[in-house]
Design brief:
The protein is an alpha+beta fold. The chain has a single domain, classed as Glutaredoxin (3-Layer(aba) Sandwich), CATH 3.40.30.10. Helices cover 47% and strands 19% of the residues. It has helices spanning 5-15, 32-44, 57-67, 85-93, 96-103, and strands at 18-22, 24-25, 28-29, 49-52, 74-77, 80-83. The strands form two sheets. Strands 4-1-5-6 form a four-stranded mixed sheet, with helices on both faces. Strand 5 and strand 6 (80-83) form a beta hairpin.
Length: 111
Amino acid sequence: MPETVFQHLQNLIDANPVMLFMKGDKLFPQCGFSARVVQILSHLGVTFETCNVLESPEIRQGIKDFSQWPTVPQLYVKGEFIGGCDIVTDMYQNGELETLMSEKGIAIANA
């Protein structure tokens, strides 16, 4: 039996402590909001994986339905949906993102 889109998304989230659903990938972001989140995570030195939602209409719509959040990028840390670009940017600027990573046991290379 083929896995559903939701099962696939959950498997990606479960398999990767820091998972970013975005347009493009970490080496070639294809929108400014996705690029900003990649830049923030890279600046922190966090190891993360990406899923390019542009590769599949099912995944592009599926992640929005899955999280009940209307836009990408979407950041998940240890299975918890954190938010999109604005939330991640605000958390980064006020130090909450670094704190969250530490609390979740995610290594920060540039802390």
